[in-house]
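Input record (one chain):
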Amino acid sequence: MSEAQNFGAQKERAERQWRHEMAFDPSFWTGKSVFLTGHTGFKGAWLALWLTRLGAKVHGYALDPLTGSIFEEARVGELLASDTRANLNDQNALDAAVARARPDIALHLAAQPLVLLSIREPIETFETNVIGTLRLLEALKANPTARAAVLITSDKVYHNDETGRAYEETDRLGGKDPYSASKACAELALASWRHSRAEHAGPNGEPLWIASARAGNVIGGGDASADRLLPDLFRAFKAGLPAVVRNPASLRPWQHAIEPIAGYMLLARALHEGDARAQTPFNFGPNATGAANVGAVAKTAAAAWGPNAQLNIGPGEAGSKEAKLLQVDSRKANAQLGWTAVWTPEEAAERAVKWEKASFDSQSLPAAERAAILRTLSERQMREYERRASGLQR
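The corresponding structure, as predicted from the sequence alone:
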């Protein structure tokens, strides 16, 4: 490598590191009004914890949390500037909540996120994931303070031919189940809205800058959803029952929830600061070592839990409607935003186990003391990610 090439490579690495670290700079987030939909959900609660830690004023809009979720157990609601419980398709409630928040930034995580439930309830899934997204955009358009919006869809928006190729942001959209199809439709709705409705009059004539973020198969502590691998395992472990593992050979691109959330924050800041290249979709998926089969992740979680964890691994369900392999290419997020995935599936699963064991072991403590323990552990894991990702950027 020539001296000029070496200098160029060093400059590029330094720029990526700076972009990564600026996402977690309190001087940017302190005092910012952030409208966060889906804040009572798994990823939404983790994001609310991170944003409030950095000094943002978080205004949440969502349905009630699931029992046993991180939102409940870490008492995330106590940290929020406001906490509205309403349906995304209640336009009057949504308009009023956005008007009260006067957001600088919106992060849209509210969704019907489960594949199996979408098969049982396709109409409700499309109403929430497509029409609900458009309702939020209309509410933001009516508020001149809104400068940036990140709409979270899914890695399942791609037409999955199961060849093993990692999909790029320009690849064909698709979706064989109602959840995946609804998220692909949300991407199309966003694109059409941006081109036809995005004229916006901020205080200084600024536009509303919008982008979508695609990630999936996140794991971590405090996920109380049904029909997801680790939550189902943890419920069985806590009850002292064997955990049934369906489709153990299915490959999934596992990552801890913290990792794509960091990407959402980076993207939000880039949009807020007027980076024209940011108004496009971005993948936030694990690196090449992040794909692992369901059975392997289940065994890692059981080993980390301890000798009381029992697994019942079956041969797989015939006729399963879930995709067997789906990976995304995140080089664009790394090059433009400085985002990096850092944890292996095993490391992500082990951190999820630590959180769930801390929750289980502290259940006899007063609620406030228990919440403090879980918040501290959550923040520690965020700092671990920050340090690891910053180190890889050097």
